[in-house]
Amino acid sequence: MRNKLWGLGFFVILLAAVIMLNGCVLTDSTGNKVRISIDENNRMGAVTQVENVGIVEKTLRAMVKGSIYESGEAVSVFGACLDSNDAPFPNTYATFDAWYPNGTMFIINESLPAIQDGYYLYTAPMASVQGTYLTQITCRVNGSDEIARAQGEWQNPYWVKRIALLNDTLNNLTVSLENISFDFGNISFDFGNISFNETNILNAIANQTENFTISIGNMQQNMTDSFEITWDKIESVNTTITNVNTSLYEQLIYVAGVANGSVDRNDSYVVELLWNIIFGVAAINETINDNTLTLAEYPDDRIVFYKNWNIYVEVYNTNGIQIGWPLVGCYISTVNLPNSTNVLMVAQRNNNDNPIFTHTEKVRVLDGFNWSVNCEYN
Asked: What is the DSSP letter of 177?
């Protein structure tokens, strides 16, 4: 019996040596890595414990994301079924639920079409009910009871409708100085009663000629004074309109930047409405509507081979106002390997919350690295 036990222990040691030399891995019935430990009290090589080693569990997670829309606009809600490493979870399917702002069900357990493995998309026209809609995606694994849910939202806020109404109003607004007319009143001349007596006629003509000359002189002076007063008023009104228009223009640029940063996609209809408002207001003032832009470029002083090179650009309109995306876009071209041609620069804000455009590129030429930047209205 003792010899049999020693023989079994020798076999276990030999098996372990073979596994170590050949790089083999022991697995259990589910494919997870395992190791064999020996009980210190049993020196005969009996197997007393099996432990899991390095098991990576693929925990199912769900994700859903919406945005801000206007009534009638196409809604796009993205969902995903992921593992613990944020990779698409294999062999999954997803359903979708949504609630109106008052809490009643809007969509119930609707199957989501997959745009690729683990990623899903829901599309439909935005409903007319305004407010915040609760959304939920449910991820399931085929042939398994594993389930995961995530909640999100999409919005149809009241301020979007107000912006649309303001946009329509501005599109119908026409400001034209050509429609301003000047009315100097009815000017009449009364030569009095003229008798047929020759002397009286001559005297009357002389008197009326003098009165007529005086009246004409007074009228000319009055017309001159009136015109100067009216022109001064027009200049004052025009200055006021320009100042108000410039202030509104700056505020709309700021609102557009905030709205663009608060939504999840840069083609949001909200931002498109703000663009139209900005251009509508800019069209009122011929100066602001000037397409001339001034650039201030701030590139890295040093250009080092195979190191990242950076540049940022500030853009100013003809009024000296610093402007940015979405009103304008900047494009950069570089002499590199390969060349960059009209690459859209990244719109950001600096530490002073002013709009700038940035670009980063690795230098792959030993010399002759050049660049050019072009900015234009969108």
From this structure: G
